[in-house]
Amino acid sequence: MSLIVIPDDAPPVLAPSDAVTQLRDCDHRIYSTLPADSRQLIARIGEADAVINIRSSTGFSADVLADCPRLRLISIWGTGTDHVDLVAAKARGMTVTNTPAVAAAAVAEHTIALMFAVARQTVNIDRAVRAGEWPRAMVQQLHGKTLGVIGTGAIGRLVARLGAGIGMKVVAWSFNQRGDYAWVTFDDLFRRADVVSVHVRQSPETLGMIRAEHFALMKPSAIFINTARGRIVVEKDLVDALRDRRIAGAGLDVFETEPLPRESPLRLLPNVVLSPHAAGITREATEAGLAMAIGNVLSFRAGTPLHVVN
Questions:
Q1: What are the start-end ranges of the E strands in 42-185?
Q2: How far, in Å, CA of 210 to CA of 195, rounded?
Q3: Which SS3 state, helix, strand or coil, does residue 191 take?
Q4: DSSP tag of 23
Q5: Whole-angstrom Cα distance, residue 29 to residue 27?
Q6: Cα separations in angstroms, 236 against 212, 217, 243, 260, 269
Q7: Mind telling me the catalytic residues?
Q8: What confidence score (pLDDT) does residue 1 get?
Q9: pTM of this structure
Q10: Is residue 134 very low, low, confident or very high in pLDDT (cuts 50, 70, 90)?
Q11: In whole angstroms, what is the distance from residue 242 CA to residue 220 CA?
Q12: Domains of the chain, each with CATH number or no CATH
């Protein structure tokens, strides 16, 4: 019998959603805790022909896939696929789908919010006012500044539009240079931009692609924003640049290790604004993404697969 398993709805987003009603006529199981390890994951999905993956912390390695012979589809809620062995999935005839662009507006808005929070020192000033102070910080304005966008997919394009909308000049770099942008070289983007914002996927070619040599190119007044993936950046090099004030500040939604470890030096830096990999989590984007993830399963079963990654 066909079975859909959601092995990692923790904390629950699918179970309480409106989108879950699409599964009412399907045999399905929803687990409200994360699998403790790969063996527990296999125990949960071993009988399934389709999995809806909620959390990127759930890893679908070659070994996991080898122990799930009935599995034919992994439908990811989100765009990232770095936690799935796509080569092994393809070799076993398994299809992997995702939900492209569904959270683009949410992530782009969050990116702009981080830009403003860092530039205006919003968090530090809020704390000072709550403590009874009346600070007069000399903050930055973004209007008239240069925004450097790394990656011009759905999110990067929208960030560029929003940046231009508040009066910023936009320069861009991308692996695939399509569209009417002021294209610059990778290094030149770091030299020219007052705000550098990262919007490329995590892949073997992007791991650690931003490192000390790039922070050294940035202006002392520049801001670095990352709402893509933490491992695209060599985090230690970023910490050094922030600690030594070689750049003015950073807004980070993603990290090398998540959740952010208690001992992370980023927690202690006053020129950093942090959020918990939540840029795409709005009520609207969540419902749309969950509905698309379920729709990908139903379309696959109907013989018309959508949003196929592999």
A1: 50-53, 73-76, 95-97, 146-150, 169-173, 182-183
A2: 14
A3: helix
A4: G
A5: 7
A6: 9, 17, 10, 13, 13
A7: 229, 258, 277
A8: 65
A9: 0.90
A10: very high
A11: 10
A12: 4-102+283-301 (3.40.50.720), 104-274 (3.40.50.720)
